[in-house]
Task: inverse folding
C-alpha cells in the first residue's frame, strides 16, 4: 500500500478527515529549508479555508478521494437503521462522536447523524448534541452533494428525508410496544 502513492489532480474533490470535502485547486512546488516540497493546495469553500498538504503526507493524514457509490449506499442504509442510544456520560459520547466525524469514514459519520437525529415529535436536543449532529450531517451532505453533483442543501434535504422516514418507523414501534 505504501508503494502506491495517492494521486489527485487539479479539480478533484477530496476528503480531508478533519475538514470534510474540499477541492484540489493547485499542485504547488515550494522550497522549504533547502528541500523541494510538492504540495496539494485544497480549498474548502464552506469554511473559506485553503490547506496545503505535502503530496508525500496525503495518505498518512487520511486524505482520500470521494467515497465509492457502494460506500455512499452503505452510509445511506446506515441512516435507515435504528438509532443506538448509549447510556454513557455525554462528555464521553461527545468525544466518541467527534472522533467518528474526524475519522473521515462515511459510514461512521452516518452513524453519528442517525444516533443524534431528533424528529419534530421527539424531545429537544441539548445545544452540544445539536452542534455535533449538524457537523456530522453537514459533512455527510457535502460528500453526497459532491458525488451526485447537487448543492449541499439538496443533499441535506435527502438525508433528513431518510432520517424522518426511519424515525417514523422506530417511533411507531415504541408506541406499539407493550
Result:
Amino acid at each position: 500500500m505504501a508503494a502506491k502513492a495517492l494521486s489527485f489532480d487539479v479539480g478533484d474533490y477530496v476528503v480531508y478527515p478533519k475538514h470534510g470535502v474540499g477541492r484540489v485547486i493547485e499542485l504547488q512546488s515550494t522550497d522549504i529549508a533547502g528541500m523541494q516540497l510538492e504540495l496539494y493546495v485544497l480549498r474548502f469553500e464552506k469554511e473559506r479555508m485553503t490547506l496545503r498538504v505535502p503530496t508525500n503526507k496525503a495518505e498518512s493524514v487520511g486524505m482520500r478521494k470521494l467515497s465509492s457509490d457502494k460506500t455512499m449506499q452503505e452510509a445511506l442504509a446506515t441512516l435507515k437503521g435504528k438509532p443506538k442510544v448509549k447510556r454513557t456520560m455525554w462528555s464521553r459520547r461527545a468525544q466518541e462522536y467527534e472522533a467518528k466525524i474526524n475519522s473521515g469514514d462515511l459510514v461512521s459519520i452516518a452513524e453519528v447523524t442517525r444516533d443524534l437525529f431528533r424528529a419534530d415529535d421527539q424531545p429537544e436536543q441539548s445545544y452540544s448534541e445539536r452542534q455535533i449532529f449538524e457537523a456530522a450531517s453537514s459533512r455527510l451532505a457535502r460528500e453526497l452533494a459532491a458525488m451526485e453533483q447537487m448543492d449541499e442543501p439538496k443533499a441535506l434535504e435527502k438525508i433528513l428525508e431518510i432520517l424522518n422516514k426511519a424515525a417514523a418507523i422506530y417511533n411507531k414501534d415504541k408506541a406499539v410496544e407493550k
Observations:
- The chain has a mean pLDDT of 88.
